[in-house]
Structure formats: structure tokens, C-alpha cells
From TrEMBL:
<dbReference type="InterPro" id="IPR003593">
    <property type="entry name" value="AAA+_ATPase"/>
</dbReference>
<dbReference type="InterPro" id="IPR012693">
    <property type="entry name" value="ABC_transpr_PhnC"/>
</dbReference>
<feature type="domain" description="ABC transporter">
    <location>
        <begin position="10"/>
        <end position="253"/>
    </location>
</feature>
<keyword id="KW-1278">Translocase</keyword>
<dbReference type="InterPro" id="IPR027417">
    <property type="entry name" value="P-loop_NTPase"/>
</dbReference>
<keyword id="KW-0472">Membrane</keyword>
<dbReference type="GO" id="GO:0005524">
    <property type="term" value="F:ATP binding"/>
</dbReference>
<dbReference type="InterPro" id="IPR003439">
    <property type="entry name" value="ABC_transporter-like_ATP-bd"/>
</dbReference>
<keyword id="KW-0547">Nucleotide-binding</keyword>
<keyword id="KW-0067">ATP-binding</keyword>
<keyword id="KW-1003">Cell membrane</keyword>
<keyword id="KW-0813">Transport</keyword>
<protein>
    <submittedName>
        <fullName>Phosphonate ABC transporter ATP-binding protein</fullName>
    </submittedName>
</protein>
<dbReference type="Pfam" id="PF00005">
    <property type="entry name" value="ABC_tran"/>
</dbReference>
<dbReference type="InterPro" id="IPR050086">
    <property type="entry name" value="MetN_ABC_transporter-like"/>
</dbReference>
<dbReference type="InterPro" id="IPR017871">
    <property type="entry name" value="ABC_transporter-like_CS"/>
</dbReference>
Length: 280
């Protein structure tokens, strides 16, 4: 952990991102303090992945500024961006493991950015790194699977391998893009609990996109709600109810079709939400 890490660790200011004629983000502001666990909540297409990808410089804004760990990403060189990515771990919905490699080799690939040249096979990695990888596998409860092929594992286990791989970077920030969207409820809970535990133990800052209000409320310190690329909600989860989150979405939503999608995807309420026109 870098003790000189500035606070806030993430500062997004007035970010707009256009892909051709598609506006994926519009005037987004977001500040995340060190050690905070933030959920990005929103429907499919609301801009969650695009915002996450701005936080490790995989995308750069059309307008506005993104500062991560004290580095202004739009002003950074390719080399500086690569160095930043070494300090920011990322996990994805589809795990992104190499299926034919062993679990241990997959974890070791998390250290590749620090090594010179490609590595083929377990023995191409220094012993110290192999031991570190085994320690991380132990931490995610998969030490006994180290020498199995990654594609023999369940989805939940594969996501835990991806977490161990991210830990190889000793990240200061962990970004998670819909990490449990492909998992059953039990595995989802396990993975989300694990991320929280690791964040607390290592003082990690976490930004995680989700599309279920229930999961977000029980898990994050704070929810940032996106809709059509704009932030419509940014509040602590403490004391916040599902009905309040849905009410905020209801307030900024003028179309009944969109409201139905929100109810379906973010979490249906027993009572229909009021549609208030003209509040956009
Ligand atoms: N590389 C790209 N080129 C063109 N359009 C893009 C690109 N990436 C994202 N978009 C568009 O930007 C908008 C936001 O997409 P984004 O993937 O960020 O949403 P999301 O909330 O993460 O959705 P999902 O939950 O389905 O992943 C969408 O309209 C999407 O089609």
C-alpha cells in the first residue's frame, strides 16, 4: 500500500464521453475517498462500464477530467497509464481467465505487468511470485484447486480466481464490472462477501457496478445511480431503503416503458411507482 496515496483517490469532474453519436456519459462528477466501497447502479446501457473504464484509463473522456491516485489520466502518457493500471485491479462479469491454464498460472498472470517478457508455464515465474499466488489462492479459499484447469471450476470459483489474480498487483483500487451477473445467488453472495472482506483487510478502495438494488444496499457504503450516462443518485447506503432508491429513479423517469425496465432490472416493488412528467 502506498502511504502517500492522496485523498480522494478518485476524482471525476464534468466527464462527458461520446462514442460517435452515442453519448455514454454526460457531465459526470464522482469523488471516492480512500477505503470507500462504492456501487455504480443502473440499467444496462446506463454507462456503468464506461465510467469504470475511465477509472483505469482504458477510456479517456471527450470532456472533463479524471484523476486517479493523484494522476490526471487525460494528460498521462501511454507509459504513465500502464503504470497506473498496475495499481488498479479489475474483475469482470465473464472472469476473463485463460481456460486451458491451471488456476495458479491464471493467478500468476496478474503479475505479468511487473515482469519483463512473456512467461510460459508455472516454472517461468520466480518462486517468490508462485508463493505469493498460492497465498492469494488460500485467501480466496481455493488453494486446493491450484493445479486444476481453470475451466473445471464453477463460475463462483472462477470469479474468486480472478480476484486472486487482481490481488497479485497489490492494487490500491479494485474495480469490479458486474462481478456476479453470471452467478447463482449463493455464489454471488460468497463473491461479494469476499470482496468486502479483502477491501476491509487491505484498506482497498472499491468501485463495483451492479444492477440489483438489493445487492447494492446490503453491500456498498455508497450508491451512485446512473441513468442514460448521468448521475441521478449519490448517497450513503446507511439507512437507505430500496423504496427510496426506486422512488428517486421514478422521479427522473418519464417513460412507463423505462420505469418497467427499472422495476424489472433494478428490483421490482410491490406497488407501482408514480410517473412524474417534466422532472428531467
Ligand atoms: N466502445 C463503444 N463504442 C460505441 N458505443 C459504446 C462503446 N462502449 C459503450 N458504448 C455505448 O455507451 C452506452 C453505455 O454503455 P455501457 O457499457 O457503459 O453501459 P452499462 O451500464 O455498463 O451497461 P451493461 O450493464 O449492459 O454493461 C451504451 O449505449 C453503449 O452502447
Amino acid at each position: 500500500m502506498n502511504s502517500a496515496t492522496p485523498s480522494p483517490v478518485i476524482r471525476v469532474t464534468g466527464v462527458t464521453k461520446n462514442f460517435g453519436t452515442t453519448r455514454a456519459l454526460h457531465n459526470v462528477d464522482l469523488t471516492v475517498e480512500k477505503g470507500e466501497v462504492v456501487v455504480l447502479l443502473g440499467l444496462s446501457g446506463s454507462g456503468k462500464s464506461t465510467l469504470l473504464r475511465h477509472l483505469d484509463g482504458l477510456e479517456l473522456p471527450t470532456e472533463g477530467d479524471v484523476s486517479v491516485l493523484g494522476q490526471h489520466l487525460p494528460k498521462s502518457s501511454a507509459r504513465e497509464l500502464r503504470a497506473l493500471r498496475g495499481r488498479v485491479g479489475m474483475i469482470f462479469q465473464q472472469f476473463e481467465l485463460v481456460p486451458s491454464l491451471t488456476v495458479l498460472e491464471n493467478v500468476l498472470t496478474g503479475a505479468l505487468a511487473r515482469l519483463k517478457g512473456p512467461r510460459l508455464g508455472l516454472w517461468a515465474y520466480p518462486k517468490a511470485l508462485r508463493l505469493t499466488a498460492l497465498t492469494h489462492l488460500d485467501r480466496v479459499g481455493l488453494l486446493d484447486k491450484a493445479y486444476q484447469r481453470a475451466d473445471r471450476l464453477s463460475g463462483g470459483q472462477q470469479q474468486r480466481v480472478a480476484i486472486a489474480r487482481a490481488l497479485m498487483q497489490s492494487p490500491e483500487i479494485l474495480l469490479a464490472d458486474e462481478p456476479v451477473a453470471s452467478l447463482d445467488p449463493e455464489s454471488s453472495e460468497q463473491v461479494m462477501r469476499l470482496i468486502r472482506e479483502i477491501a476491509a483487510d487491505d484498506g482497498l478502495t472499491v468501485v463495483c457496478s451492479l444492477h440489483q438494488v438489493d445487492l447494492a444496499l446490503g453491500w456498498g457504503d455508497r450508491i451512485v445511480g446512473l441513468r442514460h450516462g448521468e448521475v441521478v443518485l449519490d448517497t450513503a447506503t446507511d439507512g437507505l431503503s430500496k423504496a427510496q432508491v426506486m422512488e428517486i429513479y421514478g422521479r427522473v423517469t418519464t417513460s412507463t416503458t423505462e420505469l418497467s425496465a427499472i422495476e424489472l432490472e433494478l428490483g421490482a416493488l410491490a406497488a407501482p411507482l408514480p410517473v412524474q412528467d417534466g422532472l428531467l
